[in-house]
């Protein structure tokens, strides 16, 4: 190639400057042209893992998954190989549709027992909840109300409805109460915003009847429920933003599938690389 360039009257060095390729890089590729790629197996494995996790994992999480499989590989190398393969998470953030259920004081407003103390080493001691809105194909909307355990980030129960009715929050609350009765070892606190659902006498009385503390954020203070907002951000970034609008039923199915995947498969750094359910199960076995 260098000989052909000289025959045309151009110097190789000048050509490389114009196209922006370092001379050392050019000679490296000439030297290794036709040789078998030493990282071919690792590249295939990285591609397999990237697809396995629905293209939602970046190089750091892919590195952890490779180590789980017994591969000792540096995250910098994984980053380089993913760039070479063109593997990049393309789930970008965009403006969130924040549902606001606040209608003034329509019931009793509870004090903020959580006070932004989001960490707990005790399962089911602190739960948070909120409602978020999704736009569907056509004029339909979807409303999601999950209850999240701050111990491991697990979604204990959730409700999905076409309208933000009281059942949207009561059905998952009843399911959560049963879970608490069976597994909680410490009195539970459930934290929410001041939305009308959480001021409703049915919600308040259900908590009291089952000896559950109620906690509420201060009005217009999103940081008081940052853990729930963070989950909504992750969910929408990984399975909603950037996708075409779909029907209510299809979106409902996707959210149900995602929450199962989030609970059972999606690894978290602060859980030592385990999923929420894996972490809870491992911790309960260790305690036993």
Automatic annotation (TrEMBL):
Highest taxon of source: Bacteria
UniProt domain Integrase catalytic: residue ranges: 119-284
InterPro entries the record matches: HTH-like_dom (IPR025948), Integrase_cat-core (IPR001584), RNaseH-like_sf (IPR012337), RNaseH_sf (IPR036397), Transpos_IS3 (IPR048020), Transposase_IS3/IS150/IS904 (IPR050900)
Function: Involved in the transposition of the insertion sequence.
Record-given protein name: Transposase InsO family protein
Organism, scientific name: Virgibacillus alimentarius
